[in-house]
Amino acid sequence: MTGITVLAGGVGGARFIRGLLGYLAEEQRSTDGPGSTVPVTVIANTGDDMWLTGLRICPDLDTIMYTLGGGVAEDQGWGRADETRRTSGEIAAYGAGWDWFTLGDLDLGTHIVRTDLLRSGRTLSEATEILARRWQPGVRLLPMSDNAVETNVRLAADIDEHRAGDLIHFEEWWVRYRAAAPATEFVQVGLEHAEAAPGVVEAIRDAEVVIIPPSNPVVSIGTILAIPGVRDALRDTDARVVGVSPIIGGRVVRGMADRCLDIVGVESTALGVGLLYGSRSVGGILDGWLVDETDAGVVADLQAAGIRASAHPLWMHDVPTTAAIAATALQTAGFRAAYPESLDRQTIADLGGTS
Ligand code: GDP
Ligand code: CA
Questions:
Q1: Residue 183 sits in which domain range?
Q2: Does residue 219 share a domain with residue 97?
Q3: What would the pLDDT profile of 206-217 be if each residue is shown by its tens digit?
Q4: Does the Cβ of 257 fall within 6 Å of ligand 1?
Q5: What is the pLDDT of residues 45-75, one digit of tens each?
Q6: Is the Cβ–Cβ distance between 220 and 16 less than 8 Å?
């Protein structure tokens, strides 16, 4: 057993992992513990991926890579810092592309290189490894699958050129319609032919700790869990599996994950998501579940469902507060290197950076 494995979507996952790496580096510096020598593997959702104007776009992989590599537009949480939009203006002038989905000039560089690699026969795993050589994210970054598995949304009513019952790409529903177009279900197109990418099942099975960060439970984590072998690996691993609630006080914090939960009939609460994931003792995926301190009232219900739950501040305000959440997750998992009590806020703050 070795290392920490994290299943992640985009912004929520990336920010959590940045805090985790910050904690590990600080733990090593202040206690001479294993800290940043602990390998971290990230299994990223690729269900949001799509082809657009001839290019393969992988939103969650790129958000993780830019965030950990220091290139992210910090205020929006995705895309590149100091971005310009000249090329997408040109594409729009031809009436091509999707005018509601803007691609920055710097970001397009990534998509062009990735597409070139894919067209020359590399797998998405290989392309991701090559792109990550530039960004040095400090983790082993794996796509959940090398096969295209794209999350689609089935519309419940006519909207623009679409008819009720049509499937549209998740990104169109999310970005163009702000997740407000009535819908009946999510469909993972391509799932029937998909396998987990090389290393994914092993990274879960052989991990010392598995963390489910505060990512969208339906279209980020749920999509990864749908890949054949992933749930089985979570069930069979000797690692403890600990999750961090993306819902605080019945609110999604950022974004519109509550609309995704509505569609699958799950209440948008820390309890609802905890029970959706379920206890490993009854075939679910969680040993432990961190809820925000404002949700302390549901801890007993979660415990009754067989999940080791506890309440802590879960707002990822900046790297230090996120490092403290990561430390709590590791401690809950009984991780050998987790000594959060040895870290006062000032030493964590010395990590610098805000999010
Ligand atoms: P996406 O792919 O960019 O949508 O990002 P993810 O799937 O990784 O995560 C999105 C989720 O992160 C949102 O739905 C929020 O519920 C959650 N989130 C964002 N910021 C915070 C935070 O500060 N604390 C917690 N607990 N959750 C957060
Ligand atoms: Ca995403």
A1: 150-189
A2: no
A3: 999 999 999 999
A4: yes
A5: 999 999 999 999 999 999 999 999 999 999 9
A6: no
Q: Does residue 132 share a domain with residue 6?
A: no
Token representation of residue 66: 């830019």
The residue contributing the CA closest to ligand 1 atom 24 is 315
199 and 332 in a single domain? The answer is: yes
Residue 288 CB–ligand 1 contact under 6 Å: no
**Residue keyed to tokens 């959706």:** 276
Number of domains composing the chain: 3
Ligand 1 atom at shortest distance from the alpha carbon of 220: 7
Q: What is the CATH number of the domain that holds 207?
A: 3.40.50.10680
How far is it, in rounded angstroms, from Cα 212 to Cα 5? 9
Reported pTM:
0.94
